[in-house]
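Components:
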Amino acid sequence: MIATEAHKESEDKAISPQSAYIHIPFCTHKCEFCDFAAFAGLIELEDEYCQILAGEIESRLTQQKLLGEVNLSLKTVFYGGGTPGLIKPSNIAMIHQRLLQFAPLQKPQFGPVEIAMETTPHAITAQKAQEWLEIGINRLSIGIESLCDAELTAIGRDHSVAEAIAGVKLAHQAGFESISIDFMYGLPTQTMTSWQTTIDAALELTQECPSIKHISAYGLEIAKNSPLLSRFPRDSSSYPSDDLCVEMYESLVSKLEQNGFGQYEVSNFAKPGHQSQHNLTYWRNAPYFAFGVGAHRYVDGVRSANFRSLKKYMRHPLNDEVSEVIDSATRIKEGIMLGLRLIEGIDLKQFEQDYKSDLLALQGPEIEYLCEQGLLELSDGKLKITRRGIPISNSIIGRLI
Ligand code: SF4
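Structure:
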């Protein structure tokens, strides 16, 4: 279903994706807050799923070449989930080989290639970490969420703080040179004190494991039918208030920056040179391939997604569940929405080149008002959200799109 007239007519047809996302949906346990295409208790489907996924990669990339993209090459590959770290490394190796057979990695003279993989900490073993490195994975993203056991229990994670720390140490000792650790704030039972404990413990861990070069921290977002709501309804006093979440966020930014983790996106911080190149593809509104159950791609100006049901995907891996041609008005909105998440902001000249639209002419009075309020800043030809504006970035972006 990837070759449609709409693809050919799209404005983006000249831009070839240089990034690929591969979704591995298996988890040991379904966390109560999780709204991803992630499934517990189905690991017996692993081999069959991986074969189907490799077939999907082959078919879609072959089709892409038939459409005229003969020189496909990749700058970033991201194995996300789910828990890719849970499955046999031999399956990751098989999928990776198939991917590179049809879309090889870019030559080193064009800059470093990033091959990242997500895992839970307790899925890491010394043996697996070694095999991941041999496959070529050079960045590990470890979901820790909290370094307080009570909070991990509250959100229904199935690992402890001790297991989280042990997993990170195993990855570091195996030789990974770029590790990202992920956290969440706004959790039930979380207080300012427990959040500070998590940040301080994370920073202590970076001393022991200097290969931790990247930290992400997202505010908890609860999906409509999340099982977490049965224990902690939305109005439960166990959640920190909105004002407290803003304080948590501000303390996170200041502590991480004091420790050399520069903020480059609303929720992401990195040591120099260790920003997530794959995620920058999304934030820069560039095209990317995606494969696997529920995976969303942006190819030839069309955003489309595979079936989210594992059963349907495994029967019809080449059928899209949703598909939308992105017209120029939507593309501009996406460019504003994604660009303002980046701390560097939107380069207005670049924006005009990319979107054939003058942002100041389009949204001048609104931008002027938000600048007067100290929520946006316009300098050196760049439009950015200010420190003060970041905690309410969603509503600022909402006014501009
Ligand atoms: S480990 Fe991650 S992907 Fe799996 S259920 Fe938990 S939050 Fe979702």
